[in-house]
Design goal:
homodimer, elongated, four-stranded antiparallel β-sheet, 28% strand, 217 residues, 8 helices, six-stranded parallel β-sheet, alpha/beta
Chain lengths: 217, 217
């Protein structure tokens, strides 16, 4: 089915998304992505991506009639623009080095037609990191997580086991604590960890991380 | 109003989000974030954040009764976990250096209670970059864009003017092409550009980018 995207401008009140999704459900459109973008100085925008048989014009017209909606425009889909995501989290010094390797390698693959983005969050503390690890599987388009630090264990290790159980690939730097014991792959050099992370998710690469399971570099 | 988050497991078919949002609209819940997470090997998940007066239990019960929904669990909200985002795009060599500065600086602010994440996409070509710039304002929680390259102009410049018109702050490296002419701030050293980007969005910093308008460093 053809995929479309629309950007709507709406008032910030309950029931708007219900109204918009009713129009899409009535036409059997399958929604694949939603973003609600709040602004301090103007109306909220809701961005929707969906697949549907048939023309988009009647849907755009239908969305315009929803109460609270002031504007609707068809727009390019951005899942194509941002592509797959790698997330790197941990201490700033190590996250920066892993990012350097990942960004350079992603650049090489993106030139060949891939779309890989590299997202980072410098974060310390067992509780904060464990929470961030658990929520990474709820972010759209994330394929792989790199944990970059000097010591990680305790509840972070539990969180890594949980997200691996949900299918996320986890690379850990070689570090103190129990996180390296539960990662898919352990790498000592942070730049190399970043490069391997990208190779693992790129369709343009031939590196199979599953074959590397539990290896240490 | 108290804010809540739920993670639902659903079948991949039209109408599910309509069913879920009907339950929330019936209870005057105001939805602030939606993520649809597709998996190749198991059911789709839909994550919803919303604010509502009253208890969450009846809402969770209501969501469980929606056709196509197999599981609903209350979960921690992740807008608190990932916080504000800075996006860096352009050529891999420069994006990596800007990221290094931004990640190091974000680490220093995050230790003091901020939550700033640094997202990057290495990308070349006028059309691809212009599209990515335009769509950055549709990504949630993005406060600032850094354009990092050696030459950018043409339609990328038009795109920068459009997103600045929508309130996004844009920092450009000092480079060839017309993009530096339309940015809020132009910085020659990529590491410093990354540091300034974080200072500009951190509540824990005292740097006011508006005062720096059209300055070149």
């Amino acid at each position: 089915m053809p995929a479309y995207a629309v950007l709507t401008t709406v008032s910030n009140q309950p029931g708007i998304l219900f109204g918009l999704t009713r129009v899409l459900a009535d036409r059997q459109a399958n929604i694949s992505h939603v973003d609600i973008i709040s602004h301090v100085d103007r109306d909220t925008e809701i961005y929707l991506e969906f697949a549907v048989e048939g023309a988009i014009e009647p849907i755009v017209e239908g969305l315009r009639t929803v109460t609270g909606v002031s504007a609707v425009e068809a727009t390019p889909s951005f899942s194509k623009i941002y592509g797959k995501r790698i997330v790197i989290m941990g201490g700033g010094a190590q996250v920066g080095q892993v990012a350097l390797g990942a960004i350079t390698e992603a650049d090489r693959h993106n030139i060949r037609g891939e779309r890989i983005s590299v997202d980072t969050i410098p974060l310390v503390g067992e509780e904060a990191l464990a929470g961030a690890v658990r929520s990474v599987v709820r972010l759209p388009r994330v394929r792989l997580l790199v944990l970059a630090g000097s010591i990680m264990g305790g509840d972070i290790t539990n969180a890594v086991e949980e997200v691996r159980g949900k299918g996320l690939i986890v690379i850990s730097l070689n570090m103190a604590g129990s996180v390296p014991d539960v990662a898919d792959l352990v790498v000592s050099d942070p730049v190399q960890a970043g490069v391997m992370a990208v190779m693992a998710v790129a369709d343009t690469a031939k590196f199979d991380i599953v074959r590397q399971q539990k290896r240490k570099y």
